[in-house]
Design brief:
heterodimer, A: 414 residues, two-stranded antiparallel ribbon, 19 helices, 1% strand, B: four-stranded antiparallel β-sheet, 6 strands, 32% strand
């Protein structure tokens, strides 16, 4: 009994810690100017938290407690190691916790940190990894799984990226107005990936939906919108925010009893009406600017879905048209796959399957899952079973795997 | 402040000989102007253009008997044509200087930080 209580307490502590991770770490990096030192200090503070909180309960302000404790750990370490580096010495002399001088329109350490993590001088695959590690607080193992690479490879990437930030002196700040537009596009792609990892979390022990990552991606996108918006309208930033909100709005209906519920089967009364309203308003604003981009088009597709009170009322021809525009603007096999799903509703599964079979996506679980569903609808159950097995083997998300297994087991004989 | 080397690499595709005298003069002038700006803005440490790669000599003094041979060091199409050593607040500042240097010398520039002294 007491073991169970302690275990529950530990889970609660871990979720608090994860929610506070990005903000606390970003503050430590700003203060000490050293990512490794900040990370080490925070993990030392976390060890104390994981010992104390399950017994005493978490403090009233867990983020503040973690910051204070980690700061003390970092200062201890600086003194202990007698580091002569002037940067450390200066940091060690700071005794007040007043915020730094304003460096841009938005005062947030996390926003600064994301521009560092998404710096164009870093390799694209390293930007996302670093953002998930430092801001999202994901473990290296979780990130490695999300990118389908061995853990050692991912650890090396993250180490290399941090080393470059330090050696090349990549700044920790919101970029100047002239650099902002190109830098924003880089950040958008990273935020989108962070959101997706939250929405379809990977890992056998991960919750199927990592609400904290979704919330973090949305929060950072809102802030980015404020900063970039000062330079005039940024329809792609609006588009990404709308896309996230319209996706997030469906979250309450998306998982039931540990199993994924697909769009067509969701209880639409569970959808978050205020998020849908906000998303639709943003999409209308984008349309009015008439500067379409990939995020805006994906947001528009989601606006069509969330417009339908029942799946039977979905305007599939409009969705296919929007996918056509998306294919013209940013063609990719994944977009073609999603387009084929809409085509199946409009022209039937056979037409869609012909397209899907022509796509070179055999390493992507959603390709197998889509094939499986089309084959099932065509009554080709034997082939469908094989496709479900392949999809289950590749899917990282527990709820998605459960749903795929349910579908497979529901197939009648060949 | 961090010191960076901004290096200009040639890859063998440049055709300097067919460049007109005016074109060459324009590049020289642009590079001179950029050098003056670096000095005026306090970024300048050192800079230089190098003679053709064929004029290089390789010396190996790691053994008892030094070996001296005709260069270049590496049989590669790419070679260093010239460089600036600058001081900048951070990588963003160095990248902006590299952008200006690249435009002036009409070639790509590699930005590389020095080990801290």
């Amino acid at each position: 009994m007491s073991d169970a209580r302690a275990a529950a307490g530990l889970g609660a502590v871990e979720s608090i810690v994860r929610a506070e991770h990005g903000r606390v770490l970003a503050g430590l990096i700003r203060r000490f100017g050293d990512i490794d030192l900040a990370e080490d200090a925070l993990s030392e503070a976390l060890v104390v938290a994981l010992e104390k909180w399950p017994v005493d309960g978490p403090p009233p302000n867990p983020g503040g407690w973690l910051t204070t404790t980690a700061t003390r750990k970092a200062l201890d370490r600086i003194r202990r190691e007698k580091v002569r580096d002037t940067k450390y010495a200066e940091a060690a002399m700071i005794t007040d916790d007043t915020p730094p001088e304003p460096t841009g329109p938005v005062e947030d350490d996390r926003l600064r940190l994301i521009f560092t993590c998404c710096h164009p001088a870093l390799a694209p695959e390293n930007r996302v990894a670093l953002t998930l590690r430092l801001l999202g607080g994901l473990t290296v193992a979780e990130i490695a799984h999300a990118f389908l690479v061995p853990e050692t490879t991912m650890a090396q990437r993250i180490t290399r990226a941090k080393q470059k930030i330090k050696n090349a002196n990549i700044p920790y700040r919101v970029p100047s107005a002239s650099d902002l537009p190109t830098r924003v596009a880089t950040v958008l792609s990273v935020l989108y990936l962070v959101f997706n990892e939250g929405y379809l979390a990977s890992g056998p022990d991960a919750d199927p939906v990592r609400e904290d990552l979704c919330a973090e991606a949305i929060r950072l996108t809102r802030q980015l919108r404020e900063v970039a918006g000062a330079l005039g309208p940024q329809p792609e930033v609006d588009g990404l925010l709308a896309l996230m909100l319209l996706t997030e709005a469906r979250r309450p209906a998306r998982v039931s009893g540990g199993t994924l519920v697909t769009l067509g089967d969701q209880d639409r009364t569970l959808w978050d009406a205020s998020l849908i309203d906000e998303g639709h308003t943003l999409v209308r604003g984008c349309l009015a600017q008439n500067r379409p981009g990939p995020y805006q088009l994906q947001a528009a597709i989601n606006a069509v879905h969330t417009d339908a009170l029942d799946v039977s009322m979905t305007d599939w021809s409009q969705i296919v048209q929007l996918y056509d525009q998306l294919m013209a603007l940013a063609p990719s096999p994944v977009v073609a796959l999603n387009r084929a799903v809409a085509v199946a509703e409009l022209d039937g599964p056979e037409v869609a399957l012909a397209t899907v079979d022509g796509l070179d996506l055999a390493a992507y679980h959603a390709w197998h899952a889509t094939r499986a569903d089309l084959l099932r609808r065509l009554g080709r159950n034997d082939e469908a079973r094989g496709a479900y097995d392949a999809a289950i083997g590749l899917a990282g998300n527990t709820a998605e795997r459960a749903w795929l297994a349910g579908r497979r087991d529901g197939l009648s004989g060949p | 402040m961090t010191q960076y080397m901004l290096s200009v690499h040639h890859d063998g595709t440049e055709d300097f000989e067919s460049m007109s005298q005016e074109e060459l003069q324009r590049v020289f002038k642009a590079v001179d102007d950029f050098n003056e700006q670096l000095k005026a803005e306090g970024h300048w440490v050192f800079a230089g253009g190098l003679k053709p790669i064929e004029d290089s000599t390789v010396v190996d003094g790691t053994r008892a008997e030094p070996v001296v041979i005709d260069g270049p060091f590496a049989e590669s199409k790419e070679y260093l044509g010239g460089f600036w050593i600058i001081e900048a607040a951070d990588l963003d500042a160095a990248i902006e200087l590299a952008r200006r240097g690249s435009a002036a010398c009409a070639g790509k520039v590699e930005v590389r930080p020095f080990e801290e002294a």
